[in-house]
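Justification of resources, computational component.

The compute hours requested in this renewal are based largely on the per-chain cost of generating structure records like the one below. Each record pairs the submitted sequence with a full structure-token output. That output is archived, and it is also reused by downstream analysis tasks.
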Amino acid sequence: MVCVVAVLAGGSDGRVVVPLWVDLLSLTPPTDARLLRTTDEAVRGVAAIMAKGFGLPVPDRVVVHVYDGRRAFEQGLIRDARVSPVQAATLSDFAIGVGARGQVLLNHRPADRTEREWLRLIAHELTHVSQIELAGGEGRGEQWLAEGMADYVAFSTLERLGLDMLERRRQVATAGLRAHATLLQRGLDLEGHGTPQGFTAWHLRDGSIPVYQLAFLITDDLIDRRGFDRTRAYFASFRRSSDRRANFAAAFGQSLADFEADTLVRLKTASAL
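The structure output for this chain reads:
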């Protein structure tokens, strides 16, 4: 049984709290996005897909904060996620969602929001919540892999809902590589981009869209070669050890450096660079 509390902007203090109880065992993963008309229904439906379709854990209690615009989102990061004002200002400039331990914070009114994008965002951030649950804490595991896995689950969720296709997302991301050739020419530096700070610096320098697309392609390649179960087990391994390199090698049967070299060749070939 999962308690989901949806916090909506608009009350006297800027929020309205609506508690929901979600019994994942009794829920059937939806296949029709038209059934997910409200944020409550969307969270329930996406959580069911994640739990039953991907074997991802959802914590016993999740709080979903939904803010009405960038300014409210920035203030929510400070108040609800306990992010520093400087970091909140930076995050709210480019992010429209944040997944933390037991909670998801969402900007309800980005300029380009569509229903498909809203469901993608919910799935992406709920995947981060699940990763934290697997790892036993925040900031554990390679950040590029955390982001790539979150997009992989989100795109797969949209496919199950009939809103998108995983293959189309691969094609779009590969086309993005051709338009941003310097991303591969510089090398991937997965070690350096594996920390939250390193990943943030990467996409602030080279652009959020191309970097997230690249992280998705790298992760998609890893899942294709090693399987989603290995990716899930990788995050779970951080409950036993904080050694990033050893955990990666144990989960995927290859060192991070060797994987990076192989993947760089594959990406250059796929994008004809």
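The radius of gyration is 18 Å. Strands lie at 2-8, 16-22, 61-67, 97-100, 103-107.
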